[in-house]
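Practice problem: Small ribosomal subunit protein mS23
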Amino acid sequence: MATSRLERIGTIFTRAEGLLTRGAMKPDDRPLWFDVYRAFPPNEEPKFARPKPEMKIRQILYKEDAIRAKFHSEGHGIGMNMLNPSGETQTKRLIQQYEKLKSEGVPENELIEKSVAAVSVERQLASKTIPKNPDSVTAQVLGSADIKNIFKE
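Answer key — structure tokens:
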């Protein structure tokens, strides 16, 4: 059975449409995307044989990216405290501290070390001052559980 050139390079939409028009697929069995595609067809048919567009992708780099790369290359900035209500990442705090120390005139070769040290101290202080919520579900469960005697009968 020979196939025509159009059948070989057709899109998934034209193939599904062909199955529907020839009765090989019931209208109730058509894919979910079929009606959406028919109502909102793309500007250009998404064919495999279509040449890729000539587009130059610009590099988008911010000044923080260089700082972030320095921290991550030295293994800093990968942790995150999920209990921190502010939602700030360690990397964001490191960058803020880096900028602050840089504006104070700290030498370039000491900026990362001092930023990491300052953020570490902040994290330690913050972990000690995390407010306990007695109304939370976890507190209620742990409050009623006898943890010390959990495995005793």
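Discussion: Residues 1-52 form one domain. Students who identified this feature from the tokens alone can consider the problem solved.
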